[in-house]
Structures are given as structure tokens and as C-alpha cells.
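Hi V.,

You were right to ask for the full record rather than a summary. Here it is.
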Amino acid sequence: MSEQPILSVKKLTKVYRRSLYSREETFRLEADFTIETPGIVGVMGPNGSGKSTLFELITGSNQPTSGDVICCGQNIHKVKYRQRDRLAIHYHQSYQVRHFSKRVPAFLLQPAITDYPMVHLFDEPQFNTQDGYIGFMLDFFRALLARDRLVFLCVHPNERFHVQIMREICDHYIFVERGRISQATSFGELLNNKDVVDYLGALADA
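Predicted structure:
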């Protein structure tokens, strides 16, 4: 495998419109960032801000309007549909993925260059406070990191321990607000964003 950033999201956009006949734009997600090395990225943002859409685009289960997602040097949207989860896998809370039209026949797409996902995206996992489950999950994230994987942990904090988990386990942060993405390399830097403080409310001091 070539020495490439583990994930590069290049001028990615996803635009939703009211209907086929009404081209009025109802939502737009824009993302442009690169993560060079393995790590654990905390993702937060209000409901409907575009977090799950971003995850779907990264894993190739949603078709971008424009832009590219490059995982370990391979454009995931040019990989065979059934092999995309060998590069990046999305663990859903709802276990549902938006369906999109497969514009390119599978035989024209590339095989994945790896057999085991390099990027793991956890979409609002339910942290059970009983029976050591939180510790088990944190150990799992650390085990993936030890195997040079990139982990995304999306949490919608409504309890103090949710924020504490993010502060403990994550080394990078992404905040999604109205389809726009901002980044921070520490939780303290994240709190310099007024939108983040407004979103967390009293939990900002957790």
C-alpha cells in the first residue's frame, strides 16, 4: 500500500433538492479535509447538520454531487460497490443507509486494495453505562488505533459522560453545523468555536 494520507476528503459536496422538477436546494453539505495518519476523531453537531451524510459519503454508500473521497490512495467511489466496506465501514445506530443509483456497472470499478477496513465510522453508538460496556468500547477503539486504523466516533452528547468520553479517547475533532465542517486538534481548541459552546450548553464544562 502506497504512502498516502489515510483519508482525504477533497472538495466534497452533497446537494439535496426539493424534487426532480423543483430544483430548489433544501440541504448542502461541504467538506474538505485530510487526515494523514491513524487516530480517533470525535464528531459532533446538531441533528440534521449532515453528520450521517458525511459518513455515508466517506464510505461510498451515498453518491456525492461533486468531489472525491480518497482512502489510502484509492477513490472509494471508484471501488466495486460490495468491496467499499473493505476500505471504510459505517456502523449505524439505525442500521439504515440511503439508497442511491449505481451509475457505473460494477465490472468497470476497481477492486479494493485492502481486505480489512482502514477507516471505521461509529455513528452515535449507544454507550450502556452498565457492566463495563463503555470500557469495552473504548478498548475496542484503542485496539483499532493500535492496528493503524482511523476511527470516527460520532456522539450526540446529552449526558456529561458523553463529553468525558470524547475528551478521553479522541485526538482530533470535527464539528458539523448546517452542512459546514470545522476542525480542532484538541477539545480546548474545539471550545473556541462559539457554535460548539452553544451546542453543548452546560456540558461544555464537563
